[in-house]
Structure of Acetoin utilization deacetylase AcuC-like enzyme:
Amino acid sequence: MLKISWSPKYAHSLPEGHRFPMEKYTLLPEQLLYEGTVSPQNFFEPSPIDPKWILNTHSESYFDKLQHLELSKSEIRATGFPLSKELVEREILIAGGSVQAALFALEYGIGMNIAGGTHHAFSDRGEGFCLLNDIAITANFLIENQLATRVLVVDLDVHQGNGTAELFRGRKDVFTFSMHGEKNYPHRKETSHLDIGLPDGTSDPSYLQILEKELSKILDSFYPDFVIYQSGVDVLATDQLGRLGMSIEGVRTRDRMILNFAKQIKSPIMCCMGGGYSKHLRDIIDGHAQLYRLAQDLYF
């Protein structure tokens, strides 16, 4: 059975004035239920992750400052959100959801989190609406518990996964692959194991051709036994921040490519949401919903 992490706190813990396009955390599960892609049994309520697994990824001093709401004004500004107890609790819950979704992936082949993909969180600071890096926490959890030995992070959000790159710099058991807008945020890029920077306006044919080629090349040097997929839909041409030129159909093909890739190499895969900032919410919801439809079609 497809298992999907979701909690009302994914949306309701966000500060007033920062809800759009965060309504997607409520509207996406409603859409999936309405169209019959999933049933209520597919969803599970995540539990907050044990702090020891956060400290396996983030520095103790940074996490302590988060818990006591002691970030400086400049550190808070970098995250993009006013700091609050509810926001920190939300990030801890999201990390728990991603780890639990990964455990379900080990059982069923795939697990999903209607949140997460917080790839701008570094070991010692937050950035870009990310306080804790659920991708890195999940990868470290799997490796530390000997549930995986080689984790591939496929980050296809339009923004480079700079925090994830920093967290796994020099690591040989985690391979970070980020394919993103070259001129987009963050302006100071980190170095992933593989970075592909795309020019503004890149559309379906070029994007998909590059992605197929790079996925094949990764296997020449790194053969994963677990995949984490950051499935941002801010690559859409309709996105207000993305600057790429992909269509809904192109994103569907992209997602199918990643799920088929994981199936072909017999690797479990955990999918987390990532960004999406189109003007019309229907474009965001449709872009994200495709991945859940594909998961049902390909795995169940």
About this structure: Residues 85-108 form the longest helix (24 residues). The chain is about 45% helix and 10% strand.
